[in-house]
Amino acid sequence: MTTAATRGDRRISPVFLGIAAVTAVAGWAVWTGFADATGFAVFLFVTGAWIVSLCLHEYAHARTALHSGDLSVGAKGYLTLNPLKYTHALLSVVLPVLFVIMGGIGLPGGAVYIERGRIHGRWKHSLISAAGPLTNVAFALLCTAPFWLDALDGVPRAFQYALAFLAMLQVTAAILNSLPIPGLDGYGVIEPWLSYRIRRQVEPIAPFGLIAVFAILWIPEVNIAFFDAIHTLLRALGVEEYQRYCGYDLYRFWRGLFDEQDPGCAVG
Hints:
Elements: H1 7-10, H2 14-32, H3 38-68, H4 89-103, H5 122-148, H6 157-177, H7 185-190, H8 196-202, H9 209-217, H10 220-236, H11 241-251
Membrane topology: Multi-pass membrane protein
Protein name: Site-2 protease family protein
Subcellular location: Cell membrane
């Protein structure tokens, strides 16, 4: 039986450090204009930062579980921030990145496996589920800090746009993952407080929750209402719509290979 997480189980993975290093170098290239292809630098910076946030999201679940009684998370590698250690690396990293590329949506992924039987107390179970979305909220506040602190003087436009787009991804991830839909963290928060009968009825459909969210977002009315809410929230944090739009426009650097990007987002 696993009784404790060793120091090696908690050592930060070289994989995560490599991703963080690429993100930092790309961010420097965006800030300084060092790269001739600004869009590609924005792509690397935002994608890298998005993966880092996904790792921190899952780490928050695992770390909270560790302190709540599930000592097995260390042996599973969840405390190393290594995305390759996740139960579903495809769902946790690959699909969320693809959704960003295809639609500019920070769709939440899955998951670290928590041995819930080791944890006692409904509040602990709820906190473990809430830890992930709260990490996205913290990341969103960090990205938007230069905007709501009115500290954009001297910040290059390309970097402003990249931060604005990254903030949008964090906000969408936090909101979507907080929905009380089976399979998402929002449902995990309320699940401990539901009756055993309801939990048993919901259990078979939980794996399809993420698919259901994606399908619902394809409904035009829902899509418009959702993004209106996102834009309103980000505007309250000082991020204007054109900044988010230009961030996404720069992010899709490959569009410049086939057709012109929006001249209104030029940063040169």
